[in-house]
Amino acid sequence: MNSEQEKVPSFHMVAGRVPYSDQSEDEDYAPFEHRKVSKANSSLGTLIHLVKGSLGTGILAMPLAFKNGGLVFGLLGMVLVATIYAHCVHMLVGTAQKACKRSRIPVLGFAETAENVFANGPPGVRRFAGFAAAYIDYILLIVSFFSICVYLVFISTTLRNVLNYEFKLDWSIRIYILLTSAAIAIITQVRELKYLVPFSLIANTSIIVVFVITMVYVFKEPITFDDRRLWPEATNLPAFFGTAVYAIEGIGIVLPVENKMKHPQHFLHRFGVLNIAICSITILYNITGFFGYALYGEETKGSITLNLPNDQILAKSTQLLAAGAIIFTTGLYYYVPMEILWRKIGHRIPEARYNLAQAGIRFAILVANVGLAMLVPQLEPFIGFVGSIGSATLALMTPVVLDTIFRWPHDFGWMRWQLVKNALLGLFALLILGVGTYFSMLDIIAIYE
Fold it and tell me: Where are its TM segments located (predicted)?
C-alpha cells in the first residue's frame, strides 16, 4: 500500500462526533497506548524536525526584525513572542491530546482536532465543526505555499548576489527562481516524514555552520550602538512582530511530528522536546538579531547572509551553504500540504496511479509557487506578509480558540483567569493579523509603483 495510505485513520472516519456530555469513561482511555504508528520518530528526531521547522530563513531574518524593533525592544519582544508561541503550542497539543482522550481516539491531526473540539463543544458552535476543519486545512495550505515562496525568493536572491558578482552576470532574480525550482523539484518528491529526517539534520547542521561563520564576520568588525535604535517607531511594530512570529513559528508541523513520535509523552514535559527546541531557537535568534542589526544598521537586509561581502570566498561559501540548507528544508514544508491534499483527494485516485498522482500534484504545487515568487521577488515584504496573515492565524489565534471552546464553560480556573488570558492572546493575534497584513500589503504594492 502507498505510504500516504498507511496513516492512522482520521477523525472523519473514526470519531463519529462523540456527544460532549458522554465522556464518563474518558479517564480509562490512554491515547498513546492505542497509537499504531509505522516508522515512528524518536524524541531526538522530533526535536530535529521542530528546530528545522523554525530555523532557516527565520534566524537569518532576525536582524531585519531588530531593525524594525530596535535593540532593547527586539530582545524583549523576541522573548515575548517565543513565550507566547510556546504557550500556544502547549495549548494546541494539550487540547489535541485531551480531545483524543475524551473521544477515545488514538490520534488527531490539526484540522481533525479543530473539528472534534467544535463538534463536542457548546451547542452554539457545533454546527461550525466542518467549517473549522476546512478552515485549518486551507490556511495551512496557504501558509505552506507562501513559506515555500519565501524560500524560493531567499535562495534565488542569494544565488543572484553570489553568481552575478562572481561571473560578472546581469541575470535577474526571476532567472534564478527558475533555476532554483529545478533543484527543489527533486527533494519535494520525498514523501515519508521519517525519510526527511536526514535532510532536516543536514539543513540544521548547515544553518548552524552559517550562523557561526556569520557571527565570526559580525564580531570581527567594530560594532557601535551610537546610531542604532533601541526602541521601535510605532509604524514599525507590525513589521517587527510579523517577522518575529514568522521566524519562530512552525505550527503546521507540530501535530504531525508529535503524532509520529515513539514517545509522545516526552513532547510537553517541562524539559521536553518542545521547550528545549523553543529555548534553543530563542537564544540563537536574539544573538543573531541583536548583533546583526548592531553591525549593519539601516543597511540590514531580509537575510543577514545577504549583508556579507561578495568579494570573499568564505562569505560567498556561507551564502551558498545557507541557500543549500533552505533547499533541504522544502521537503519538510511539503509534508503538511501534501497530507492535507491527499486526505481530500487520495480516495478518488485508483491505487495503481498513487505514485504518478503524488508526483504530479507535488510538481504542480511547485509550479504555482514559482509563479507567485516570480510575481513578487522581494524578500522583506514577503516575510512580513506570511508572518502576519498566516502565522498569526495558525500559531496564535487557532490554539486560543480551540482551548477556549474545549474548556467552556467552567474549566477556566480561579476567577476565570484562563479565559482572560486567552482573550488577551486573541487580541494580540488580531493586532498582528490586521495591522501587520495591512502594512505588508502596502510594501508589496509599493514594489510596482
Answer: 44-66, 72-93, 135-159, 171-188, 195-219, 239-259, 271-293, 313-336, 356-376, 382-402, 423-448
**395 backbone dihedrals φ, ψ, rounded to 5°:** -80, -25
Task: Report the run of H or E that residue 33 belongs to, with start and end.
Answer: helix 31-34
Q: Which amino acid is at 292?
A: G
Q: CA 379 to CA 285: how far, in whole Å?
A: 18
> What are the residue boundaries of the structural domains of the chain, listed by start?
42-447
For 163, other C-beta atoms within 10 Å of its C-beta total 16
Q: Which of these, 396, 430, 404, lies nearest to 80 by C-alpha position?
A: 396
Give alpha helix (H) positions in 249-307.
Answer: 254-259, 273-296
Residue by residue, pLDDT tens for the chain (449 residues) are 333 333 333 444 334 444 444 444 456 777 777 677 677 778 888 888 788 666 666 788 899 889 999 999 999 999 999 999 999 999 999 999 999 888 888 888 888 999 999 999 999 999 999 999 998 888 888 777 777 888 888 899 889 989 998 888 889 999 999 999 988 888 888 887 778 878 878 887 888 898 889 889 888 888 778 788 889 888 788 778 877 887 787 777 788 788 888 878 888 888 888 899 999 889 989 998 999 999 998 888 878 888 888 888 999 899 999 898 888 888 877 877 888 888 888 888 888 888 898 889 889 989 988 988 888 777 666 666 766 777 778 888 999 999 999 999 888 888 889 999 999 999 988 887 887 777 777 776 776 66
Q: Indicate the DSSP class of residue 299.
A: G
Q: HSE (CB half, 13 Å, CA atoms) of 131?
A: 4
pTM for the full predicted model: 0.78
Residues in the chain: 449
Instruction: Specify the 3-state DSSP secondary structure of 10.
Output: coil
Helix (H) or strand (E) holding 379: helix 379-385
Q: What is the largest CA-CA distance in the chain?
A: 73
Q: Tell me the C-alpha distance between 144 and 147, whole Å.
A: 5
CB of 303 closer than 8 Å to CB of 156:
no
Q: What is the DSSP string of 66-121?
A: HHHH-HHHHHHHHHHHHHHHHHHHHHHHHHHHHHHHHHT-S---HHHHHHHHHHTS
3-state secondary structure of 260: coil
The CATH class for the domain spanning 42-447 reads: mainly alpha
Radius of gyration, CA atoms only, the chain: 22
Is residue 110 within 8 Å of 343, Cβ to Cβ?
A: no
